[in-house]
Amino acid sequence: MPIYRKEGIVPPKRHIVFRQPNGELYHEELFGTEGFSGMSSLVYHLHPPTMVKSYGEPYSVRPTIAVEDNLQARSYQSFKAKPCDDYIKSRKTLFVNSDMSIGVAAPSKSMTDYFFKNADADEMIFVHKGSGTLRTMYGNIPFEYGDYLIIPRGTVYQFHFDTNDNHFLIVESHGPIETPNRYRNSYGQFMEHSPFCERDFKFPVDMETRDEQGDFLINIKKRGLIYPYVYGNHPFDVAGWDGCSYPYAFSIFNFEPITGRIHMPPPIHQTFQGRNFVICSFVPRLYDYHPDAIPAPYHHSNVDSDELLYYVDGDFMSRNNIQKGQITLHPGGIPHGPHPGAIERSIGKKETQELAVMIDPFNPVQITTEALEMELADYYQSWMEKPVLTEA
Ligand SMILES: [Fe+2]
């Protein structure tokens, strides 16, 4: 996030003597995810962040691939993911390629006995159901329905939920998850044509400075294995930090849609960019206002990317019989478009209430066994159905 933030206390200059009230030095840590040249923050700990007491046997959470090569339109009911008390076990990976993985989770209990750190990937967690607090060493981020939580890889965190009814869409990215370059000027500031700007983000607040010793379990994910590490100090022992690397949230309801007289292409919905993928937000908006406009999208040939659409809420103008939490996968290589009847049905309509998240991986995804358990049969033939000409 190219916005400088400062919380708590930091010395007047970086890398100089900075002492605690008891006379000991603060322990400075540079935290970044792209060597020493990407965005980073300087963090001032009460204790060294290196005090490992012990570690346990690692265990695997690598998904099993069921379909390595796919050229079939498919669909999945993600609400078939059963609620699970344990956060790590609740995370179900559905699709993977060398850049990213995509999954869902229905965690039903707050994390109280361990912290989690994803050393593999930056995370985008879209909150479809649930609310609570994301706790990190940078501070806390209250979250609710519709929030995208962006967590740089390596961030130690804990989720505290308000209820046991939570449902997340999760993207893990091996490169940084960023806001689109074309929304920002050369200084990093969001420009006037961007559908959101600096005021729309939720930053970490109410930093905890925990001077506690004991056994603090951090489950660290690395190359698909979970390594249980026990540290001697609380991971949130931070007195202050500043810089440009930290977790934040952005609500899909703060995305201001761009509309036109005739159909606007999907890039107007872009919200984030990653290495070889984009994430877009489809939000309630007025339809195209040319007198002969066709609001439904035209058929299109996405030969260079797979296209995953996660349906959140509202009526889905271009699809028939779609449920909340349903995912469609339209693979690169064959064209796709509105369902039978959807184009006629859209003519003359003034607005849509649809809410959806689209993920376009530029490299084909492989499909896991856990995805197959949620798959709907024969979706690829759904364009052969009789047209549905009236609203469901
Ligand atoms: Fe599409």
Structural description of this entry:
The chain is mainly β and 392 residues long. The protein is built from three helices and 29 strands. The chain has helices at residues 87-90, 342-346, 369-372; strands at 5-8, 27-32, 40-45, 52-55, 59-60, 65-67, 74-77, 91-96, 100-105, 115-118, 122-129, 132-136, 139-143, 147-151, 156-161, 167-173, 201-202, 213-222, 225-233, 238-243, 248-251, 270-274, 277-282, 285-286, 307-313, 326-330, 351-352, 355-361, 366-368. A nine-stranded antiparallel beta sheet has the order 6-29-8-9-16-11-14-21-17. The model has no long low-confidence stretch (mean pLDDT 95). It binds fe (ii) ion. Fe (ii) ion is lined by residues 300, 307, 330, 336.
Explain briefly what this protein structure is:
This protein is mainly beta and 392 residues long. 3% of the residues lie in helices and 38% in strands. Strand 2 and strand 3 form a beta hairpin.
Largest sheet report: 9 strands, antiparallel
Termini separation (Å)?
42 Å
Give the overall form.
globular
**Small molecules (ligands, ions, cofactors) in the structure:** fe (ii) ion
Instruction: Determine the number of helices (DSSP H or I, runs of at least 4 residues).
Output: 3
How much helix is in the residues?
under 10%
DSSP strand tally: 29
Cα radius of gyration in angstroms: 22 Å
Strand content: 35-45%
Q: What average pLDDT do the residues reach?
A: 95
Strand order of the largest sheet: 6-29-8-9-16-11-14-21-17
